[in-house]
Amino acid sequence: MAWLVTGGAGYIGSHVVRAFQAEGLDVVVLDDLSSGHESFVPANVPFVRGSVLDGGLLVHTFHEHAVHGVVHVAGFKYAGVSMQRPLHTYEQNVTATATLLAAMNTAEIDRIVFSSSAAVYGTPRTDLVTEETAKNPESPYGESKLIGEWLLRDQAVATGLRHTSLRYFNVVGSGDLALSDTSPHNLFPLVFAALLDGRTPRINGDDYATPDGTCVRDYIHVADLALSHVAAARRLSDGQPIEPVYNLGSGDGVSVGEIMATVRRVTGIDFTPEIAPRRAGDPDRIVASGALAARDLRWSMRHTLEQMVQSAWDSSRAAAH
């Protein structure tokens, strides 16, 4: 019996796959490689190239590999781009999730861990976000993730589906030199790409209402995140009580300025980042409590900021060579 990881050839998904393997759990990967890399999939893991929008392929994969649970990581994850491509975002994140749930129902698979997002909160009015904080997504991406959670909820009422959704903010670092964040929109790969090219990194705004003027966010290590996906899958398999949603948050957060200082120490490259204009709608501070996930999903911040930056820098350099 195996778990299917959709998007398992991507940055986060590939770490989830390795976390499952490390705990002796069989896993299968389905990915269309629109942003993932086949090289990220271990040689001993079955790989199916295809889209979550292909219901027939899903049902075939479920039966061929004796799948009994799904970790749904695949999706279009670029909040800013989603403002220009809303229909594409909804197709990839909503239609695909509905297709997946229909295929699971056909194959009588009744457990799923859903990779959601802190984008469902929009700009919260509280300094510390909990699972009960009001949901006010401000992009088609955030809306699509919230709708995904609703789909799981409603399918659970209809069929008894066992599920949980994991909401998280900024995922960084690397648990394996061969796995790097290749997103063209995330802070760490953008900063490292600039340094490796001999350019000066840019950050957005230095006039926020924070101690150093740069915005404060949750940054969590991808390997810590992956372990909580495994813990969630185990609870579903074992029939243990599980909440419908969990925040994977640090509880305190770090500023972009602190990250830049850490990047200077780790890389040994002295630079002063260029200050670009603030992005519209960016709040001063968003930090989430991870208390509920710590109780149920083995969640903890096992890596310091220095370790997050070091592992991300090492994997970025390895990818560049």
Automatic annotation (TrEMBL):
Which Pfam family name is an example for this entry? Epimerase
Question: What cofactors are annotated for this protein?
Answer: NAD(+)
| Main EC class the enzyme belongs to | isomerase
Q: Keyword NAD: yes or no?
A: yes
Which SUPFAM superfamilies did the record assign? NAD(P)-binding Rossmann-fold domains
Keyword Chaperone among record annotations: no
Q: Which domain of life is it from?
A: Bacteria
User: Which keywords appear in this protein's UniProt record, sorted alphabetically?
Assistant: Carbohydrate metabolism, Isomerase, NAD
Q: Recorded E.C. number(s)?
A: 5.1.3.2
User: Which pathway does the record list?
Assistant: Carbohydrate metabolism; galactose metabolism
Q: Molecular function (GO) terms listed?
A: UDP-glucose 4-epimerase activity
Under catalytic activity, the entry for this protein gives: UDP-alpha-D-glucose = UDP-alpha-D-galactose
What GO terms describe the biological role, i.e. biological process, of this protein? galactose catabolic process via UDP-galactose, Leloir pathway
Q: Which InterPro entries match?
A: Epimerase_deHydtase (IPR001509), NAD(P)-bd_dom_sf (IPR036291), UDP_G4E (IPR005886)
**Boundaries of every NAD-dependent epimerase/dehydratase domain copy:** 3-249
* Family membership noted in the UniProt record: Belongs to the NAD(P)-dependent epimerase/dehydratase family.
> What name does UniProt use for this protein?
UDP-glucose 4-epimerase
The record lists the organism as Cryobacterium luteum
Q: Which gene encodes it?
A: galE
